Amino acid sequence: xxxxxxxxxxxxxxxxxxxxxxxxxxxxxxxxxxxxxxxxxxxxxxxxxxxxxxxxxxxxxxxxxxxxxxxxxxxxxxxxxxxxxxxxxxxxxxxxxxxxxxxxxxxxxxxxxxxxxxxxxxxxxxxxxxxxxxxxxxxxxxxxxxxxxxxxxxxxxxxxxxxxxxxxxxxxxxxxxxxxxxxxxxxxxxxxxxxxxxxxxxxxxxxxxxxxxxxxxxxxxxxxxxxxxxxxxxxxxxxxxxxxxxxxxxxxxxxxxxxxxxxxxxxxxxxxxxxxxxxxxxxxxxxxxxxxxxxxxxxxxxxxxxxxxxxxxxxxxxxxxxxxxxxxxxxxxxxxxxxxxxxxxxxxxxxxxxxxxxxxxxxxxxxxxxxxxxxxxxxxxxxxxxxxxxxxxxxxxxxxxxxxxxxxxxxxxxxxxxxxxxxxxxxxxxxxxxxxxxxxxxxxxxxxxxxxxxxxxxx
Length: 459
Ligand SMILES: Cc1cc2nc3c(=O)[nH]c(=O)nc-3n(C[C@H](O)[C@H](O)[C@H](O)COP(=O)(O)OP(=O)(O)OC[C@H]3O[C@@H](n4cnc5c(N)ncnc54)[C@H](O)[C@@H]3O)c2cc1C
Fold this sequence. Notes:
Radius of gyration: 23 Å
Bound molecules: flavin-adenine dinucleotide
Structural class: alpha/beta
Helix content: 25-40%
Number of domains: 3
CATH superfamily of the largest domain: FAD/NAD(P)-binding domain
CATH class of the largest domain: Alpha Beta
CATH architecture of the largest domain: 3-Layer(bba) Sandwich
Distance between the termini: 15 Å
Shape: globular
């Protein structure tokens, strides 16, 4: 057994990126100190207790597809896989004007062809439209993406129109997936990001397109389990630990200073923060400022969550998409959390997730209540007969980074020119849009870079 003192790594940020880096490095024997500014872990994926009812509410409904291999592995590693459900294939009900159609992959056709029936059988698009969808999917399969290539500068909407798509297929199929998947309208995302989404999820094995979801609140799912993992491996996880600055000496990162004045020295520092917070913790004057500067150009997009509790069940599905309606995607939290009813003995908790929510972010709670309670009653007959027992909204103004044309060049790699300083965060260069998968991948990539650096320096 080695008698050497393990090398120490400070990780700033207790979101999924920082937690993933912490878990990966703990497992490899490094001594971790993870510092999170807020009193809880999870970053942009957290849950809180509703002050009135005590019920646990997520800051936003989080789902993931089977193609999210790093996130899936992370959940396995921290012992949290039992708290999510992942069906074997894509299955989602879509409602339009009171009619239902399904986006449903076949359970008996093998390989990626299993997803074709989801397009062929999609009744909200005309027959000609479905042929267009098949053609579009073929062109997506053939499309070659490359870093810095022209697809990063075109919108996905324009690319789809150049490849046979119409207003009908774009609004009823493509944007139904792009808007929640990339948290922006199809007219605002790059063709590269749109193609990535469909190539990764819909053109692989059927399990890759399946939609998984947690059955517990987000903080319990990942934050608490990852922190226990790090602590069990002799690491330290501190919440309410606001880092003021990364310390540099002789051009190297040597530790951090907290707002409290405490200084923590380490062999390496991983900054797992959103871009604006990263720039705030770097020393004002340093030789490599130019390397970090592009991060300032990364934009963010809002998500608004509308939570309605009804006095009785109003929806059978776990989740359902609604076309030609402000509802977008509606989640039955009670059923997803495998409960018959809410704790008061009756009723259902419904979460409406509004992506790319520019239109909703400045609306008052009263306005949102009027619009969304009425819309629920219009679309779901049971909701029209039910009483609303509680209504809250959760506005996340900087929910995700935007994948607008030209934005990819602002994403930084995990390895920096400053020895001992590494980056993580969903926005760093992972090849994925702003997702839990991207956050975990970034943490793993940063951990790999730390190991390479510290091994080269005599660990
Ligand atoms: C409403 C909503 C819905 C979403 N839905 C989905 C979804 O369905 N599927 C999906 O895959 N993704 C979804 N996402 C995106 C996903 O949550 C993020 O991509 C992911 O959580 C980002 O993790 P991160 O660790 O990169 O960043 P963050 O979660 O932002 O973590 C950064 C952490 O750093 C901390 N911090 C900041 N400054 C300091 C400092 N000075 N010192 C110490 N700590 C500091 C912050 O408090 C934060 O905890 C959603 C996001 C939101 C907001």
